[in-house]
Amino acid sequence: xxxxxxxxxxxxxxxxxxxxxxxxxxxxxxxxxxxxxxxxxxxxxxxxxxxxxxxxxxxxxxxxxxxxxxxxxxxxxxxxxxxxxxxxxxxxxxxxxxxxxxxxxxxxxxxxxxxxxxxxxxxxxxxxxxxxxxxxxxxxxxxxxxxxxxxxxxxxxxxxxxxxxxxxxxxxxxxxxxxxxxxxxxxxxxxxxxxxxxxxxxxx
Length: 204
Description:
mainly alpha; Tetracycline Repressor, domain 2
């Protein structure tokens, strides 16, 4: 068996440039609206050069989604069943809000894929995301049953956390427009608000 040759520094640099450009284009135009010409132009490479690394728009999109899902699952993976329940859940809220602040394009890329019915990521949702959510929902249910947090529906609690944190990335333009000058950096106040909201929600 012949092992693949390791990529050169230039190849790694070009792949990084393509994926960075594709993230910008896909997050702005969605999968259907994005074109290889747009990605090539944004990456500073010719279209034939781009196709040397990725045979299609679908291949680039799949590579981005694979990276994204793993990053997206990390905050939930960090929820520690042995930790203090309220502190663990509040920390999860903060981690998700930080991701919206630090990775807004990735959030919009994921949202666009979901809005289209998740045709290119459904296998990963069913194979990776759902088992992880099931596992953490069981932990939350156990905390509720033990009287350590309020009796909350674990799945809808997780959905609420997603909705209330990812909103700041997916609807960034709207958030900043409505807040006006205060919207220059909405995240410090958003963190204080969400901390207060979930502290009250989880209180026994």
